[in-house]
Amino acid sequence: MIRVVVLFPEQHDVGTGGPRMLRLTARFAQEWNTWGTPETTKPVMERLLAACEKEGRDPKTVRKSVQALFFIAPDAET
Fold this sequence. Notes:
The protein has helices spanning 19-28, 38-55; strands at residues 3-8, 11-15, 31-36, 63-68. It has two helices and four strands. Helices cover 36% and strands 29% of the residues. It is α/β, with parallel strands linked by helices and 78 residues long. Strand 1 (3-8) and strand 2 (11-15) form a beta hairpin.
């Protein structure tokens, strides 16, 4: 699923993890979001940083966020 939210005419927020959209995110987006656990989001973040490098963009200029996944269960075995 691709989600592009336009808040202002020149601001693009993207939630994605696939290679094509990471490349477009690196090229055009001001904000980027992904979801998962710390273990699953780290590789996606690394791919975003690589896409920024390939596009010649400073990754510090992309605001990044992660929607954390967690599960509530009665005990550790559930």
